[in-house]
Amino acid sequence: MSVNRPEALPIGRRVAYWRGRRKLSQQVFADRLGKSKSWVDKVERGVRSLDKVSTLQDIAAVLRIDAAVLLGRGVQSAKVAERTVDVERIRAALSRYEIPLGRPAGRRPVLSVDRVAREVAHAWTTFQYARYPQLIDLVPDLLADTQRTHARDPVAGRVPLVEAYRITAALLVKLGDADLAWVAADRAMIAATGDRTLVAAAAVQLGQVLRESGRAREATSAMRAAAYRIAPPVIEYGTPPELSLCGTLLVQAALAAAHYGDDAAVAELLDEAADLAERVGDGHDHHRTGFGPTAVDLARTTAAVELGDARDAVTWHEKATQRDGWRSLPAEHRAAHLIDAAHAYLQAGDPINAGRVLVDAERIAPAEIRHRPAGSDLLAQVARDPNAPATVVQLADTLGVG
To answer: Is 20 exposed, middle or buried, given 0-12, 13-18 or 19+ CB atoms closer than 10 A?
Structure first.
């Protein structure tokens, strides 16, 4: 067992670990507990013991974790507790209804459209680098700022508001809360209504949410409608941003069709998307889609996994990752794909390569394995295989999964 794992530490060190995770100084932490800074320092150094249940509960409340985590029930329990807290913070931000209820905005000023646009751009960059813990910290204020700016300037403020909801929905899908993600995606669609480009952009996240919610047939129907609505009348005259949105929505429709085994629809939709991708080319990120020929090939991998065609999935994966466009994709996109590729290798009875691509995913975007349930669960599955590479077993042990 690694000595760096939190549950392997003495309880005082666990307190220090979680205080650091919450970015609290010893003084601030002490103030919130109603204790002295010296008391906190002694607890963290192990000089003073924590033997009162009420004190443990107070500390856990300030640190926003379950008291069981402080008692060392394991990293996995800590991660679940932390993820629950993170989702609840976002739920609280989505539940404020500050503008419609006329609640006071607090001390934060109403920001200019340019300022919130920069906030949104920063949040998207944070997401695409898969820095999910940092993004969780950003989202509550981002939602509040974009809502206030939109209330003051409904026309110019609409784009950043829709984008803030898109980011929130995408993050919640990563955190495994499809129901709450649906709330964010729905608000993005409502805010975008009347602007075909914004509707198409918001629909990208709606498609992800519907698939994650088990509503694959509804996703296919909605994504087709959204794709054909944004499609230019003459494809040859379509702009790259239009074609990127249309193609991405067709990809979403295809992935949804794969969920319920419609091979013909999957092939048709992905071929359509591939035609558009050739016109857009690789190396672009119109409307945060990363759409291009490489993205379509990656989608073929995911669809093949869903359809149970392991050999095809592995072939498409190996082809796509040899493309020049592979490295131009955001870290989040590449690491998420590698998780799909690991599924393909497992289906093909190849735990060695499944483990290899998971280690690659963790190197490219650690949070895809460390903070995304789909990634950590798959790592645990691969690590349990008798033929799993030592590097995978070591990574699973380090992260406390298995």
So the answer is: exposed
9 has pLDDT over 70? no
The H or E element containing residue 143 is: helix 132-152
Place of tokens 């919610």: 213
How far, in Å, CA of 310 to CA of 96, rounded?
A: 45
Q: Note the pLDDT tens digit of each residue in 136-189.
A: 999 999 999 999 999 999 999 999 999 999 999 999 999 999 999 999 999 999
In CATH, 1-73 is 1.10.260.40:
yes
Tell me the mean pLDDT in the region 254-260: 96
Q: Which fold has domain 86-214?
A: 1.25.40
Report yes or no: 216 and 259 within 8 Å, Cβ to Cβ.
Answer: yes
The burial of 109, by beta-carbon neighbours within 10 Å (0-12 exposed, 13-18 middle, 19 or more buried), is given as exposed
Q: Distance (Å, rounded) from C-alpha 342 to C-alpha 314?
A: 9
Averaged over 125-138, what is the pLDDT? 96
